[in-house]
Amino acid sequence: MNMEREFGEFGGRFVPEILVKNLEELEKAFERVRNDPSFKIKLNYLLNNYAGRPTPLYFAKRLSGLSGSKIFLKREDLLHGGAHKINNTLGQALLAAEMGKTRIIAETGAGQHGVAAAMACATLGLKCEVFMGAEDVVRQKPNVLRMKLCGAKINIVNSGAKKLKDAINEALRDWITNVENTYYMIGSVVGPHPYPTMVKEFQKIIGEETKEQIMVCEGRLPDAIVACVGGGSNAIGIFNEFLSDKEVRLIGVEAGGLGLNTGSHAATISRGSKGVLHGSFSYVLQDEFGNVKDVHSISAGLDYPGVGPEHAFLKDNGRVEYAAITDKEAVEAFRITSKLEGIIPALEPSHAIAHALGISERLGKDSIIIVNLSGRGDKDLDILEGVENDANR
Amino acid sequence: MTRIDDVFRKNDKSLVLYTCGGDPDLRTSIEIAGRMEKHADIIELGIPFSDPLADGPVIQKANNRALSSKIIIDDIFQMCSALKRPVAIMTYYNPVYKYGIEKFCRKASNSNVDGIIVVDMPPEEADFITDFLQGINLIFVVSRNCELERIRLITNTSSGFVYATSVFGTTGAREYLDPGLAGFSKKVKLVCDKPLALGFGISNPQQVADAFSYGFDAAVVGSALVGRIEQGLNDKYSMLDDIGEFCRSLRSLSL
Fold first, then answer.
1. What is the pLDDT, as a whole number, of residue B118?
2. Choosing among A5, A9, A14, A283, which should be mutated to test the B contact, i.e. which has the most B CBs within 10 A?
3. Residue A17: CB partners within 8 Å, gap ≥ 6?
4. Does any domain span residue B255?
5. Residue A278: left (phi > 0), alpha (psi -120 to 50), or beta?
6. What pLDDT, on the 0 to 100 scale, is given for residue A386?
7. Residue A67 designated active-site
8. What does DSSP say about strands A57-59 and A70-75: parallel, antiparallel, or unpaired?
9. How many Å lie between the alpha carbon of A152 and the closest alpha carbon of chain B?
10. In-domain check, residue B13
11. Best exposed site among A83, A126, A156, B45 by fewest CB in 10 Å?
12. Domain count, chain B
């Protein structure tokens, strides 16, 4: 049994006993496939021919013109489904199939993981149910329709604040009830061991490609890599390959919501404290009695009061810097990127773009910044319209 | 030796009754616990928490009612001090951690708490608490999918009693208790001589009697009781009578 916390004091397996056996089985199965060449061949085939890997690293010339640096975008938004999430769901769906599980459950916030789960399950012939908070169902409607088209059943979650955190709670409760036949396909580097490690394994390809690509383009490593952090899977995915390259600044950008001093934000690392949420020890936005706070972000995918345990570890050991960008700044970056580059980013990575633009001047003219453009923004057009209407009122 | 150890030394069929502390408000909750005490051997008092992962809808709502009444951990300790029966606190890990594990145990001890159940804390993490327990029992859960080796680890770590969950699922009343539970209690008792309580899904006198006949030393009733609080929110006095009557009835088939 491997119960050590994987990331310093962070990680672990804080779950009701009934889930322990499943997590142990999952850990064993994952350890078996992660070094199994035939599993890798199957996964790579799907990543390349179904999802569309490798994704390009694009030099955003006009965005760079606006800033002081060379800004490159890692185009995870071009993947099938429209986000990096498919890297993970294909890996986990293959694993679930190998484990003989017939029913897949997943949670979703922005709907991107839900869509990616539904797609991966459809192509592998697995039954898929997605838990989604009632509030997110309303604000990310296009993704709800896409999931349904791909054959997934949507379970609308009305408990708690009706958002991502509550969707994970309900998915875990479902798993507690259906442990025998069900596989829980978690969407980020959160949850009890082995999830944070496993999701990283399936997402680290982003950074591996990025490193090769920047060496080809520029012949050197970048000065900084910027990625948004909700649970943190796209960030871990691009950071992991560069962790030992100390000269590369790694910056995680959290959702500053209405501002860090307003209380209406989702900046877990910036403003949270140590605790347990969804089975792992990490940072949590909570009150003094350990009750998890209701959080806010314009982007449903970052609207989460927890964060992956490895991010907590990387924050504490100083390897990764964490910053926050407000709703307003993210919307501004969303607009600028659309207009200057003809690329409509999701609101989540718009936070990362905003921060990259903010630091570019200080980094200087020949500096290289890579932003992980983790998803595309088609799903967010309704929200933007709402912002516009509010502004015109 | 806690009062919980005492209960199991004296009785071979014990009744454990659960309520969420502070549901729907502190005063009413103290009165509810007062009614429960007349019939329970052990009171299990939940600390209201924002994210009760192992609980079904009925107890989730109870947690929310208590949180809406601004109930905090200190209120629960105050309730514990007022109880005459042995009391076990039911909580999740995060409230204990955030409160401070040492402070939590010290206050629990000063408030006559006899046992603590931390639903989402595996025995592997127990070291963080055991140093501070000051004689309080730390009660762990075994579930039906545990292999013998794991049952051994859990029951060795557990003190006072061992809490066995009857179902695959969250808390909440069920229509039937699975007769296969007789085999489950036998399996646990192969490696453990500590008292064994059965919880989750037990909601009526027949099921209480069944739990004893399946070889368990105690039966825990929670959601069925908490559901009566929800139903009686508009009429506190009939609710209290209803709860008293329900608690009294629970033993009627197993005396």
1. 98
2. A14
3. B122, B140, B141, B142, B143, B146, B154, B165
4. no
5. left
6. 84
7. no
8. antiparallel
9. 23
10. yes
11. A156
12. 1
- Least confident segment among A220-234, A270-284, A305-319, A371-385: A371-385
What one-letter code names the amino acid at B163?
A: Y
- Supply the DSSP string of A258-276, one letter for each residue: T-TTTS--B-HHHH-EEEE
Question: Does residue A3 carry a pLDDT above 70?
Answer: no
β-pairing verdict for A280-284 and A273-277: antiparallel
Partner B contacted by A160 (CB < 8 A): yes
Over residues A359-383, mean pLDDT: 93
B53–A173 CB contact, under 8 Å: yes
Percent of chain B with pLDDT over 90: 95
Proportion of chain B above pLDDT 70, given as a percent: 100
Contact A3 B122 (CB under 8 A): yes
A-chain residues within 8 Å CB-CB of B121? 14
Lowest mean pLDDT, pick from A48-52, A178-182, B73-77, B232-236: A178-182
Please say whether the beta carbons of B160 and B88 come within 8 A. Answer: yes
Q: What is the pLDDT of residue A2?
A: 42
Q: Which pLDDT score is estimated for A4?
A: 64
The range of the structural domain enclosing residue B103 comes to: 3-249
Out of B41, B44, B114, B217, pick the active-site residue: B44
A162: annotated active-site residue: no
Look up the CATH number of the domain holding residue B220.
3.20.20.70
What's the pLDDT score for residue A393? 67
Q: Is A374 a catalytic residue?
A: yes
Could you say which of A14, A16, A289 has the minimum Cβ distance to residue B99?
A289
pLDDT at A61 over 80: yes
B114 in a domain, yes or no?
A: yes
| pTM of structure | 0.96
Q: Is residue B254 part of a domain?
A: no
Write the residue in B72, B146, B169 that is nearest to A17 by C-beta: B146
B218-221 β-sheet, strand order: B137-139, B115-118, B87-91, B42-46, B14-20, B218-221, B196-199, B162-165, B141-142
Q: Which of A42, A85, A101, A200 is catalytic?
A: A85
